[in-house]
Amino acid sequence: MKKNNPDPFSEERKSALKKQSSGFLKYSGMATQMLGTILLFTYGGYKLDEWQQNKVPVWTLILSLVSIAASLYMLIRSFTKK
């Protein structure tokens, strides 16, 4: 037997689940982007140090710090953007 009156909370539950899942996807995407940026820049610095045969890993340090700053900048910009 089918109900004539659908559950009034079912639409509210669906919209709440959509908001929750879209937020999760948004923030997990941002975390992945930050991790990728940091890893890519650090690896580039490592390869530059290897190519220049530096005893002190100057490029690795510089590029890893720049990538962290850039990632934080992108994160803050995405939070303040509405």
SSE order and pairing:
Layout: H1 10-52, H2 58-80
Helix pairs in contact: 1-2
What does this structure look like?
The protein has one domain (8-81). The protein has helices at residues 10-52, 58-80. The protein starts with 9 loop residues before the first helix and ends with a helix. It is an all-alpha fold and 82 residues long. It has 2 helices and no strands. It is rod-shaped, with a radius of gyration of 22 Å. It comes from Dyadobacter sediminis. Pfam families: ATPase_gene1. This is AtpZ/AtpI family protein. Keywords: Membrane, Transmembrane, Transmembrane helix.
| Unreliable stretches covering 5 or more consecutive residues | none
Biggest sheet statistics? none
Helix- and strand-based class? mainly alpha
The CA-CA distance between the termini, in Å, is 47 Å
Question: Strand portion, in percent?
Answer: under 5%
Indicate the percent of residues in helices.
Answer: over 70%
Instruction: Kindly state the number of beta strands.
Output: 0
Mean pLDDT: 85
> What integer value in Å does the Rg equal?
22 Å
Number of helices: 2
What shape does the CA trace take?
rod-shaped
Return the string of H and E elements.
Answer: HH
Number of domains: 1
Keywords: Membrane, Transmembrane, Transmembrane helix
Transmembrane segments: 24-46, 58-76
InterPro entries: ATPase_put
Organism: Dyadobacter sediminis
